[in-house]
User: Fold these one by one.
Assistant:
Number 1:
Amino acid sequence: MKIQIRVLISFLVLAGSVTVILLSSYGFRSWFNASAVTDWIVSSEEKDTTDRHRQNMEESYQILPDHILLKPEKGEHMSHLVRLDRYGKMEQVVTERDVDSFLEIDQKVYYKIWKDYDEKWQNDIDTIYSYDYTTGKHTLVTEGTNIDWFSIYQDQLVYVCSDTSGCMDQVFSCQLNGQSKKKIYQFEGKLYGEQFVLTDDRMILFYDTEDSYESGIGMLSLQGNNYKCMLVLDGSPWKSFFLGQRFYIIDDNKLFQIALDLQKGRADKTLLSENEDYENIVFLCGRGDNLYSTNYDREFALIFEGGNP
């Protein structure tokens, strides 16, 4: 009887140890959402997605030659910014503040955090910081009212924010240290959330005119301050991804490709496919020349393969 009890106790201890190990392993993986996003990133074998990420700032990750930046969607560091090695192992937490978007350029990470409110919760101030790997310091680069988007072109940080009334959007630029801030353009109304792209010396954006209920794609020169409508859209797409000099957008369960002709200032829209499942797409993302989608469970699905939907 004593032997049976000892065997039972030993079995329970062993089972408990295995359970602890499994839970610990699962806890580590779910810590930065390794079960979905990180495994997908590591398996992609991509060497560097900096240029693509610069044009798609809604991406939750950026692949560098020797590491990965990731904004986890669950776990202890949800919405923080972490650095992983190319195998998906945690190296460091870049910042524990809630990050909206980020971009690493030349060993510096530029990131926008969620709003800082004043004591009366009246001013919706967004801030953009830089983090230097060499010094380990975080530096405030710039701030503004309701910054919807930012990116970097050459040695300039370009961003979109609201005016003081909150009714019109403005485009600003500044040096990477925050100096020489200037207003490039002011729109007579609001733009779509974060659907902007920097390509060459131009800014491509989705606009929406409330008075006429017209939406479309516009082009703004960062040098000459010239703005031009490139294409009027029938609907109001809010999911887009820029891949290979083309936009891919989801609108009313339809996948469209929009080819840009920057020299002529035109854009051509082509229907690629139609699928009821498109309504469950949360984000569009890229791998190589292929376009993928993710659902609310962060499951990836191929929807466009190198030109063949």
Note: The longest helix spans residues 2-31.
Number 2:
Amino acid sequence: MTEMHDVARTTLLIDGSHVDRLRSKLGRVLDLERLITHFEKDGRAVAAHYYRDSRDAAEQGRLANFFDWLSRHNIERYGADDFNQPWYVRERYGSNLVHLAVDAMTAARNGDHLVLLASDAKLIPLVRQLRRDKVSVTLFSSLSVPRSIAPPPPLTELADHFIDLAADDRFFMPSSR
């Protein structure tokens, strides 16, 4: 594939459910604009993708303003809103990881540096393949949360860079305390 210094763009892939769990356990809100700005500093373009399904109409209503905010800030949201369809059965966890993985492989083919804000063990084969293809991967998550939320050791070991959000508060909204 491509070496990191040849990369023209960064693709940020955000597992929205993971962001929700981190916010719950760390008690802080991630600043997605600050995260994007961090990767724009070296002159790269940043494409940001946010993966989050709506469970039902009530959740869709609660998240509508946030989804609008994502759109206004050029963060593409991917996820199912098919909860009114008789065939729709929502998987409890990881329902967007296939879409995230496909987008990661497409971005990697384009020579992008990949940033994953995610932690699911289902992503290990993806990151393993990206490493074989010599694609640079930065992983954002935290080891200071329960094991059910924290990235498994193979995922952090495979990433070129791991940023533990509990130890690096640059990417949080200012605290209102």
Note: Strands lie at 9-15, 45-51, 75-78, 113-117, 137-141, 161-164.
